[in-house]
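Progress note, sequence design subtask.
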């Protein structure tokens, strides 16, 4: 694998939870795998005042609590810690960025490094434009002495107007090709493998269209509630938190045309074409194509699970959705007439994310009618998490007399070919940014197109008092009305379990 060029990673919000739980452990794993540059450094920046040694102590604690350091030598850990530096500033103060600029120059000189710098904004979204402007005010985006890249975390705006405003502000300070909008969902190994499954195998791509596919089902279920994020979540909801970004990005990967070449701009341009082809859901179409729900109090295995409205920092009369099921159509030649069903929610029976490709039945079934009743259409299940893998379901003859057909499964587990555990999304995305590969990062036009699709739905919920919000007991698969969006009453959602091969069961918490 290509080695990244020497660089410094500046983490704004270095004393925060994301840095402690995700960024530092991911960087150390890359260091352990010898995938970091030969010379690298991390400069933590936050309001809290630490010395370098105090910050290194916090980094070491982060590795012990959240890192995978069992196989690492003491020397590896020490060399990693010695590459950690810290500067405390008020990031709202433009003049304070001179201190960061001088510290970067000092680190690069000390370690004989070029001025290749990644700015990672691990801060509240309201600070993205502030920090970008302050960096530009000190010419810290200038690439005369080395490349500069800016990583921002989702959410990329709260609605279309705020997304447009954020993109304009970021692009005033940095060039679009310097901006890396991170969606950790795209960094998951199994999401990336959707492209490999489609474009590296001659047996799938010829079938990947409306002639052979009946419908596509995408599920992202979480078994926990909002936990300590009630204040944030009550102003966001499942549509903004999951559908607008994660699920639509997966939809784009499933539905995109093959790019002419496999590079960042070509791949992202094809996914944007999908988003531009989404049929708008507006007005009275919202109630027919979208179901929203909110979890209510329930008891599972003797344990009481709180209602959403009883969660900390949640409005006791909140109408924020914790569950969304929607049907969308992609109006192009490949997917015309094929419905895509998306579903996500909090406090569902199990934590699972997957894509199910439901193929059409054979045009003429030649076996007995009794046999036909036991055979469902062929399915290709792409499990994103957990128990990552692929499951193909097809019909086979039951041994013995007659011609009874039964559905059987053939599965593949990524663990069978992975050396150790699968890399985390942050490992992959941080490494890609160091390499200058933006393939798995969201481009501004993609973000805006996704907002254009979901905003009419959000507006209908806000403005139309007749739009229903259904309750569902915590620990179940959402409101029963979620089935109403299917085009046939005979269809239903797949109810996946934690184990890829155990499906069709109604798993409980």
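Output:
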């Amino acid at each position: 694998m290509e080695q990244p060029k020497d660089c410094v990673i500046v983490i704004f919000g270095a004393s925060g939870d994301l840095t402690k739980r995700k960024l530092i452990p991911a960087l150390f794993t890359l260091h352990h795998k010898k995938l970091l540059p030969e010379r690298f450094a991390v400069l933590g920046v936050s309001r809290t005042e630490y010395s370098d040694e105090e910050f290194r102590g916090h980094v070491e604690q982060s590795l012990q609590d959240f890192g995978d350091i069992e196989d690492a030598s003491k020397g590896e850990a020490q060399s990693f810690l010695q590459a950690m530096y810290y500067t405390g500033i008020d990031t709202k103060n433009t003049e304070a960025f001179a201190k960061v600029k001088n510290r970067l120059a000092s680190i690069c000189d000390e370690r004989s490094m070029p001025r290749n710098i990644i700015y990672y904004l691990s801060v509240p979204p309201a600070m993205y434009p502030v920090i970008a402007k302050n960096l530009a005010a000190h010419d810290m985006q200038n690439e005369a002495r080395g490349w500069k890249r800016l990583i921002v975390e989702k959410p990329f705006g709260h609605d279309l107007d705020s997304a447009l405003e954020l993109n304009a502000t970021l692009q005033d300070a940095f060039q679009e090709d310097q901006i890396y909008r991170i969606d950790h969902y795209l960094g998951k190994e199994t999401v990336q493998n959707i492209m490999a499954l489609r474009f590296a195998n001659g047996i799938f791509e010829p079938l990947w269209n409306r002639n052979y596919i009946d419908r596509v089902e995408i599920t992202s279920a979480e078994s926990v509630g909002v936990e300590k994020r009630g204040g944030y979540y009550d102003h966001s909801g499942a549509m903004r938190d999951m559908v607008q970004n994660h699920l639509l990005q997966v939809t784009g990967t499933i539905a995109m045309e093959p790019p002419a070449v496999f590079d960042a701009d070509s791949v992202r341009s094809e996914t944007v074409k999908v988003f531009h082809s989404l049929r708008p859901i507006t007005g009275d179409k919202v109630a027919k194509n979208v179901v929203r729900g909110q979890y209510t109090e329930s008891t599972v295995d003797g344990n009481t699970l709180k209602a959403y409205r009883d969660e900390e920092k949640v409005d006791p009369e909140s109408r924020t959705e914790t569950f969304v099921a929607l049907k969308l159509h992609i109006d192009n030649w490949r997917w015309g007439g094929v419905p895509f069903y998306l579903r996500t929610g909090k406090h569902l029976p199990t934590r699972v994310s997957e894509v199910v490709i439901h193929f059409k039945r054979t045009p003429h079934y030649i076996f007995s009618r009794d046999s036909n009743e036991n055979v469902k259409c062929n399915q290709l299940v792409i499990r994103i998490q957990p128990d990552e893998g692929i499951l193909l379901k097809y019909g086979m003859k039951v041994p013995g007399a007659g011609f009874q057909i039964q559905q059987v499964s053939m599965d593949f587990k990524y663990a069978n070919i992975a050396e150790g555990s699968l890399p985390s999304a942050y490992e992959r995305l941080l490494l890609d940014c160091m390499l200058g590969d933006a393939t798995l990062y969201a481009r501004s036009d993609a973000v805006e197109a996704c907002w254009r699709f979901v905003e009419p739905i959000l507006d209908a919920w806000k403005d139309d008092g007749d739009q229903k919000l259904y309750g569902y007991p915590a620990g179940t698969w959402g409101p029963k009305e979620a089935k109403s969006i299917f085009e046939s009453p005979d269809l239903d959602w797949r109810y996946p379990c934690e184990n890829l091969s155990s499906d069709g069961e109604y798993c409980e918490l």
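The chain is about 30% helix and 20% strand. Work on this subtask will continue into the next period as scheduled.
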